[in-house]
Write a structure and sequence with these properties.
Chain A: This is Lactate utilization protein B. The complex is a heterodimer of chains A (about 475) and B (about 240). Chain A has 22 helices and 13 strands. Chain A has about 475 residues and is an alpha/beta fold. Chain A has a 6-stranded parallel β-sheet with strand order 1-10-7-4-2-3, sandwiched between helices. In chain A, helix 19 packs across helix 20. Chain B starts with a strand and ends with a strand. In chain B, the strands form 3 sheets. Chain B has a 6-stranded parallel β-sheet with strand order 2-13-8-5-3-4, with helices on both faces. In chain B, strands 9-6-7-10 form a 4-stranded mixed β-sheet. In chain B, strands 11-12 form a two-stranded antiparallel sheet. The chains are: A alpha/beta (about 475), B alpha/beta (about 240).
Amino acid sequence: MPMHIGEKDFKKRVTKGIQDDFMRGAVRSAQERLQNRRAAAAEELGDWEEWRTLGQQIRSHTVEHLDYYLHQLSEKVAELGGHVFFAETGEEANEYIKQVVQEKNAKKIAKSKSMVTEEISMNEALEGIGCEVIETDLGEYILQIDDHDPPSHIVAPALHKNKEQIRDVFKERLDYLKTEKPEELALFAREKLREEFLTADIGITGCNFAVAESGSFALVTNEGNARMVTALPKTQITVMGMERIVPGWEELDIVVSLLTRAAVGQKLTSYITALTGPKQIDEADGPEEFHLVIVDNGRSKILGTEFQEALHCIRCAACINVCPVYRHVGGHAYGSIYPGPIGAVLSPLLSDYDEYKELPYASSLCGACTEVCPVKIPLHEQLIMHRRKIVEDEKKSTLAERIAMRGFEQIVHSANLYRTATRMAPFLTTPFAKNNVITKGPGPIRNWTDTRDLPRPTKERFRDWFKNREKQGGAV
Amino acid sequence: MKGKIINRERFLTNVSSKIGGLTPEKSIEKPEWTVNPQHNVLKDFTQDQLVDVLKEQCQHIHTDFFQTTSDRLKDTLNDVLAQYATKSFIYSADERFQTYHLDDFFQSSVNEKRAIMEWDPEDRETSVSFAEKADAGITFSDMTLAESGTIVLFNGKGQGRSVSLLPRDYIAIVPKSTIVPRMTQATQYIHELVKTGKNIASCVNFITGPSNSADIEMNLVVGVHGPIQAAYIIVEDK
């Protein structure tokens, strides 16, 4: 799946989301559970703010010296006998992965969850050369079975589906016969996928964090599928976004501790699996051959700009879980595999404003995202910076908006014009007002009145009120 | 044999040019972080206090907790195996099974009806297929994290990755001395190995209870691809 998902038009995607009551119910309850768990885990630590500060310092330092740490990582991996491929684009990454797959004459590929492979459409590339790619994370598996339904959340990809819908998908596609109980659905997936793990030719994983000092990388999971994928197939390929790295093991401790708490409120997830190179000669299980693919795909464009902090993201989705806009429109409305506040910051950067100029506006700027971010990315401030760039540098606002804004600018620049305009406002809006509210506004006001009433401007303006007050000797 | 590194120069030159043009080979000193809250967690706790924390945490991670002496270990293990209706199990090739006389227990009459295998690093096929069908996998813990209730395994030679992964149940034997406050002590230990040029395990597993998933409506399901049940047996050191 490429980064862009669904309908091209933003408004159509939003409307579709708002009308989907199933999805909105599922998102509401998921958000509540995840928010509470995160808050409880942060509270329990007692000094969560210090942890965040440390996380921020580690991420800033690493990204500021990314060239050094990537160099060190690749040296270490190669010393251990692993191969490292640096890919500037998604296509380059896919070409290399295809080449490895073809050299191994591999047909079946078991994959654990990875956002970067979604971003570069790796599955499609491998399917294109006749491979079967099996998603083994439960959420991703459900989506794959359901005609490649796109993910709507970066941690819980099938969050938009309820259990009855999942039961129906399994029933229709896999002749599932049991109920919608999550336990039964999960057990069914366990049985189905067990055989696939044992017979896969190649395992492909993402990477939560690479560790530069030892050439290691860590996978943070709960289900055990990533362990299967890295223990059983003879060849392993790991794909990482180039910023997903920390200097050493001591820093790994901190970012993992932040990630598991911020994402799901766990002290640690069931499995943190830290892998270093291919298996050693005296070991029975583990991959004989290991390839690490480091992907840029637009990330270096962000380095050295005012958006560099977006690369500090550790993909916990805490910002998504508190976002009131995400709550109403759901993940698919963002049109990107990266939804929510971080998606609204990142998607226009990894792609461009032509595709994602609406996303920075899909925010109330309430700042809840910034407050929960475990590495203190100023998310809502970055959204404002996007808006400024879109309007001032890129001139991508609509013509009507530009004309309206120019008009507004002229009026507020002149005291006389301002006085006249504010005096005229009540009369101009009279035809549209009923009981002192406007329910169906003209032109630019319509976007507002479509969803709520607009109070009609009153005849007494602030300046009138102030003057009267002074006349009456300051009494109200 | 050293692996290949492809396209590095072009890629890193571009990255360097965006962040101040450092040469990537130039050594970077990690700064002193202004705060280090990780060292305050369970600071100065005694070994017994850490056991209490671990016990409490086991309730949150759906893990059965047992505590025993080294003399009674075989009885406790047998109780757990009986409770889990274990008909077959695989255990890692770890000399601690001899130290704690569990090898004798495995050969004793109570185990006559159980199919038992020791992980054989020389024979991948037999080991993996036995583990895949076994009811339980048993390992000793290499390091144990009290805060999160985590067993750390330095997987290698005898400590096969599959033993704690493929069987239906996972049983970890935890010598009390392996318990440390949290992940910080484990990662520090590994960092010291790296710093002094020693090899580290090709797979370090931090295992916290049985496998689970919340992918369906955020409802926690215990037991997905990895083990469905987990038990920790804390034992006084031999």
